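User: Sequence recovery, please. Input:
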């Protein structure tokens, strides 16, 4: 690299370090009890935290590596299982020295196909194909898993994968005072208890589940998950007498691992927040809410009445206001009851506690209003039929309706197997994130899930990455190796294509 390129990469790394310092400051505030209750425009109580101010590093001033023009980055197909490359690989990749992605570190064989948008040809490069504009490039990259191109950073959105360079994301460089950049991490189902609870007791360590993912989860500006387990000091764990129980109970000490991993907040809008065969009900829900709040992990999607259950959890990071909104589409499914969506057993009412029920008139009104108050609105649904590869049609419909109402992205869990996603009107919908901590070791699909990494610049989602996890020893997730992740993503994209063929 020449001196300008070296300085550019150093500037970007400095920005990354400053953002990490902001995350550390925010997490310290949360853990010290700085979480506060405020009023949202819905007239509902919402929880809010505030982070350090934003940082600025104009993308157009940076030269990230030899071969890249100032203010540009390398983008690939979303289907290429590669998060990034080394700085020394950039120029050879653009100049055709690598014929196959296997030579760059991708664990599968894919030919390198260089595209270029008209007027944006890298110096010394000979593109295989020229395209008219970014929209045409996004289509060709979706059709060509080995495709790659150089683009101005400001042009990039969630339709492409932006390669990190030496472990640093160029998207961070596009932050401005008016449009800061943040990263949000979303994990799937956390279910302590049963075999997982037995393993925690065997090891005498209730933080055991989080040891292999704690450092990674702590890198996000905001990290959330779905928590579906009763927390109690008085209920005897049911698995002691019944190893096949569907009632999940854990002790408050289990929350130590979530705190250690930097999980900021959790949705409790699910079928294990109120309903249970043993009848733990609202007292069990209330204990769980209490212990989570005491641990500094405020839950959402539940409450003492419908207004509280519909309330979002709101956090402010780098000047951006983010609202998370939970919906129970299993045991509080009013609009789409069925075999797996079993009606309203747990839904809150005006005078009784419970989960936020799936009533689309309420949900769409809430999202529309939240979108007028906050920069980023993320509904997290618990819904769907278990162990399938694609969602039911009604789930696709309601997810798209949420995007139309103003949601920035839509997240779902519950099927205990991962599904694909779609980009609807440029915004991502993830149809089943899968298990994160659960003891279903009986199949590959149930042992695996993924962490969603969402990158926002201002209000816009400009990128996402999926990080596959494999559950070990009934209770401990770990990040997949590159080869495991490539195989996992092959199944993910098959689900994407099946969903696309089914629903257009």
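Assistant: Recovered sequence (504 residues):
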């Amino acid at each position: 690299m020449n001196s300008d390129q070296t300085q550019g990469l150093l500037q970007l790394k400095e920005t990354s370090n400053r953002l990490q310092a902001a995350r550390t400051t925010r997490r310290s505030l949360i853990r010290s009890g700085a979480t506060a209750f405020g009023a949202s425009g819905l007239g509902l109580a919402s929880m809010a935290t505030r982070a350090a101010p934003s940082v600025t590093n104009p993308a157009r001033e940076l030269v990230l590596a030899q071969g890249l023009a100032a203010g540009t980055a390398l983008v690939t197909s979303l289907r290429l299982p590669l998060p990034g490359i080394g700085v020394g690989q950039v120029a050879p990749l653009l100049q055709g020295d690598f014929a196959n992605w296997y030579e760059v570190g991708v664990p599968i064989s894919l030919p390198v196909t260089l595209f270029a948008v008209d007027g944006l040809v890298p110096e010394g490069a000979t593109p295989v194909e020229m395209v008219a504009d970014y929209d045409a490039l996004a289509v060709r990259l979706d059709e060509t898993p080995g495709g790659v191109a150089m683009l101005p950073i400001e042009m990039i959105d969630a339709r492409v994968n932006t390669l990190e360079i030496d472990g640093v994301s160029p998207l961070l460089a596009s932050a401005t005072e008016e449009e800061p950049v943040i990263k949000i991490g979303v994990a799937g189902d956390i279910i302590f208890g049963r075999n997982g609870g037995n393993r925690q007791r065997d090891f005498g360590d209730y933080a055991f589940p989080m040891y292999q993912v704690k450092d990674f989860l702590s890198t996000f500006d905001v990290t959330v998950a779905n928590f579906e387990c009763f927390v109690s000091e008085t209920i005897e764990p049911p698995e002691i007498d019944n190893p096949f129980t569907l009632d999940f109970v854990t002790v408050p000490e289990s929350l130590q691992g979530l705190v250690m991993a930097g999980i900021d907040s959790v949705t409790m809008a699910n079928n294990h927040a109120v309903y249970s065969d043993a009848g733990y009900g609202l007292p069990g829900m209330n204990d769980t809410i209490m212990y989570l709040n005491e641990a500094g992990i405020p839950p959402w999607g539940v409450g003492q009445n419908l207004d509280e259950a519909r309330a979002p959890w709101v956090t402010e990071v780098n000047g951006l206001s983010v609202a998370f909104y939970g919906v129970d589409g299993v045991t509080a499914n009013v609009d789409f009851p069925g075999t797996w969506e079993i009606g309203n057993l747990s839904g809150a009412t005006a005078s009784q506690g419970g989960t936020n029920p799936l009533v689309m008139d309420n949900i769409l009104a809430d999202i529309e209003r939240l979108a007028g108050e906050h920069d980023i609105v993320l509904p997290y649904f618990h819904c769907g039929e278990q162990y399938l590869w694609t969602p039911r049609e009604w789930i696709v419909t309601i997810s798209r309706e949420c995007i139309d109402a103003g949601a920035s992205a839509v997240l779902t869990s519950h099927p205990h197997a991962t599904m694909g996603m779609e980009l609807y009107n440029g915004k991502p919908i993830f149809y089943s994130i899968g298990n994160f901590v659960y003891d279903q070791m009986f199949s590959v699909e149930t042992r695996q899930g993924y962490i969603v990494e969402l990158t926002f610049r201002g209000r816009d989602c400009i990128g996402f990455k999926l990080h596959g996890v494999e559950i070990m020893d009934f209770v401990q997730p770990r990040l997949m190796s590159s080869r495991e992740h490539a195989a996992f993503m092959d199944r993910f994209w098959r689900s994407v294509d099946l969903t696309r063929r089914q629903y257009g």
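The two ends are 46 Å apart (CA to CA).
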